[in-house]
Design goal:
Strand content: under 5%
Oligomer: single chain
Helix content: 40-55%
Radius of gyration: 24 Å
Distance between the termini: 34 Å
Length: 213
């Protein structure tokens, strides 16, 4: 499939016969040569696939894929940063945000295809150790001098974690889930407004065609 394929309008009935849902659309895009992330990836919405097909977001074709070894890849956050850096250099969008993320293999294959000189493909590259963000680290409340001058325990066997630490971890996870929920709500409203605007524009065009007829 050419990168500059001409667009053609099809009737809804014609499309529905072959593409009835997101699953059909995904495999239709794959059959046309688009190298999409895994179907279970959070980025794989119907809107994303449509944007890929219409070249509104950057996505490689199977014919473009070139693989390079990366025995010790970094975490997803680092890969996404490299992907976005490349996309910005080409004035392109990726469709990736906090709630819409491709699988790790797709990110690696994207970079090895479009950015083969990226540092992660250097022979000497080793991913840096993951650093726990301050907001993700579990906090336990104790008197100010409670921990002062305490010796390290002589523990021979792995012991059960303190309940107060487990409790704090659970509460921390709940707080992060609430934050993610708020973020998802904002992303949902943003996406809904985008789709409403596209629908409004499509209705205007359809109305204009009807008037001309």
């Amino acid at each position: 499939m050419s990168n500059a394929s001409a667009m053609k309008e099809h009737s809804a009935r014609e499309v529905q016969k072959l593409i009835g849902n997101k699953y059909d659309l995904y495999w239709a895009a794959v059959r046309n040569g688009f190298y999409l992330p895994k179907l279970k990836s959070s980025i794989l919405t119907e809107e994303y696939i449509e944007d890929v097909i219409h070249r509104r977001v950057l996505c490689p074709m199977y014919s473009e894929i070139r693989l390079k070894p990366c025995p010790a890849p970094p975490d997803k956050e680092t890969l996404i940063r490299h992907v976005k850096t490349y996309a910005r250099s080409k004035n392109k969008s990726t469709g990736i945000d906090d709630t819409h993320i491709p699988d790790k293999k797709w990110l690696l294959d994207f970079l090895s295809t479009y950015s083969p000189d990226c540092e992660i493909f250097h022979k000497s590259y080793v991913a840096p150790p993951r650093v726990v963000a301050a907001q993700d680290e579990t906090k336990v409340s104790l008197p100010a001098d409670f921990m002062k001058d305490l010796p390290a325990p002589r523990r021979k066997a792995k012991s059960k974690r303190l309940q107060m630490i487990t409790k704090q971890k659970s509460e921390g996870r709940l707080d992060r889930m609430k934050q993610m929920q708020e973020k998802f709500k904002k992303e949902y409203l943003k996406e809904k407004n985008r789709l409403d605007a596209r629908k409004h524009e499509a209705d205007k065009k359809r109305h204009a065609r009807q008037q001309r007829q």
